[in-house]
Design goal:
2 domains, 8 helices, five-stranded parallel sheet
Amino acid sequence: MPRIAVLEDDPSQAKLLQHWITSQGFVCRLFERGNDILRVLLRDTFDLVILDWRVPDLSGEEVLKAIRKNVREPLPVLFTTGRDREEDIVHALKSGADDYLVKPLRRMEFLARVDALLRRARGAGRDAEEPIEAGAYRIDPHGRTLHKNGQVIEMTQKEFEMAVLLFRNVGRLLSRAYLLDTVWGISADVTTRTVDTHASQLRSKLGLYPEEGWRLSAVYQHGYRLERSAPPSPAAGEAPAPGKPEPAGRPRRKRA
């Protein structure tokens, strides 16, 4: 369930965009002021940002520049504005916008651009039901099964959905709010403690530890990131793994 942040200070236009977006099953968060949306974007996770150009305090252009400077994760941005001069469009694209729409917006075109940006961000041609292969793990979203080294791992429905989301976003920081919206749904009566509990269970069930080549890290006041981790090297004096030759050293002196 993609999460989309919208910066729009016209209440009627904001409500219209929210209606269009939620009609597609997406989550939409509305913001009227540039400082407000930027503050949230720096600590929360979204799949797409839609910016109006002229809004109170920070303009859409200033928000865009701050996103490109401070947001580590790739984040597509769609500009929507009444400014239709060619130089304005070129300026916005050169400032880091991924696409540009001139108001008044048309529903079908707007949704097509949103869908295209979301697909591009996820990877062209990637199917939500496509199996995931990641080292010792194989996840089948359609069959709702997860194997590790060929063995089925027993999981609850929410554990499985959270595992799919993490493995589809390896290396990406996912906020607790993003996990709640995407896995539990926007109306779910759960707390961030639920996310923490499920993350702990996944770490244990799947063996997401550095010594097994993976790390599921909790990022303070943000959320979780799943990333690959190189297994630790053998400690000094530890016998080499079976089948591995001992490191070359000085040749032994033959006895007389």
